[in-house]
Amino acid sequence: MAKFKLDEIDHQILDMLIDNTRTPFTDIAKKLSISAGTVHVRVKKMEDAGIIKGSSLTLDYHKLGYSFIAYVGVFLQNTSQTKFVLERISEIPYVTVAHITTGKFNIFCKIRAMDTTHAKEVIFMIDDIEGVYRTETMISLEESINDKKRLMHSIFNDL
To answer: Is residue 62 predicted with pLDDT exceeding 80?
Structure first.
């Protein structure tokens, strides 16, 4: 597949959609002084090229009662158990992200919980998975940076 070339208009469209994926194409078109059809065609081309993969919704977990965040490093008895353990981890809804990693941990997870008691229960669920040797947990005191735009701007400037 040929490399998709982004231009300044594509960059501005992505900028607005990163801010709010629900921004109507007509609003984007007005701000960029182009037609809504042009926005639609460009977004479709970026989707077809795999640059845009769906859209997401950002929830306020604090308002939903799940403001406690912890990161759990998982040590496995054998790396051959990775797939099995990940399948079990994926059954725990409070584990929102899991990565297979190199270095200290075999798997690194992000969990969301209501409080420390709930987090302990989630961590024990992970500990109880067959093949998990032990876990190590870090509590997040605050999410200080969560910026999708800075990387996108750096990538765009490198093109």
So the answer is: yes
